Amino acid sequence: AATGSVTVVGLGPMGRAMAAALLDRGYAVTVWNRTASRADDLVARGAVLAPSPADAVAANEVVILSLTDYVAVDAALEPAAQVLSGKVLVNLTSATPEEARAGARRAVERGAVQLTGGVTSPPSGIGQPDAATFYSGPREAFDRHRPVLETLTGRVEHQGEDPGLAALSYQLGMVMFWTSMLSFWQAVALARANGLTAADILPQATDTADSLAQFFAFYTERIDAGVHDGDVDRLAMGVASAEHVLRTHTEAGVDTSLPAAVVGLFRRGMEAGRAEDSFSSLVELLARPGG
Ligand code: NDP
């Protein structure tokens, strides 16, 4: 069993799973949450519920922050400003890269350091060997507290000193996660309007999702080389296909926001003179919307 002690601030599903994983490994855990009752199960297992954020922060050098956003982080840390000196704030709260950098600057102003983290697994993955977290910020703090970090997720990766890097990696994952999951909800809605269930289309949806990695790999080399040749696909073909998708939703009486947005992007590519280029040329349009 570990001999260390750690503070966890924020007991949503993630913070609760983290505190539980630390208790499982033998850490002494102090917790604080705005709604104190969320600590009940953890206290029953031996965690100490601090009466205030300042008491929670003062209790340990390592303070894990798992809050909804940085507004909540500021709300929790403000009353603890006097006891932040010397602390390592492991901030696993979702944020933009700029918010993470500003948070790290505020920590330094108070004599603390921030390790920004982006956890890529849901609460069920916390404490598991294959779950992963991106970190950035002071390497020295990462190395020194690596055993604690590896208790939260078995895989950890330090990406660099810039506290914004881990936030960027997290958001790169999330833009794909939200749009991909929405694509599944969209297909389920279309299926349902046609008398099919989610379970009916799961095998096909899984095949489609599995096929995406090979498309990413194929287009990556060409995109980085600035090559958008229309040798395997043309935007003119893509726009016709996207319009079939859109009209299938219209026929079924299903919401068209998402498929209409796709058609809109394809049409803008056409207007930019890309009809004979690959639909990968939309990357250029997305990266510089003003042209
Ligand atoms: P929740 O939003 O469910 O809970 C976060 C905690 O923030 C709660 O304890 C809540 O307190 C607290 N909080 C919110 N606003 C304030 C405030 N103004 N002052 C003080 N405390 C506040 O988040 P999760 O536990 O689900 O996730 C935590 C972080 O991890 C988020 O940034 C999320 O994006 C990220 N994440 C979540 C994943 C998931 O699957 N859930 C996966 C990967 C990352 P109270 O209990 O009093 O409401």
UniProtKB/TrEMBL annotation:
Residues 162-287 form the NADPH-dependent reductive aminase-like C-terminal domain. Keywords: Oxidoreductase. It comes from the Bacteria. Residues 6-157 form the 6-phosphogluconate dehydrogenase NADP-binding domain. Signal peptide: none annotated. Belongs to the HIBADH-related family. This is 6-phosphogluconate dehydrogenase. It comes from Streptomyces badius.
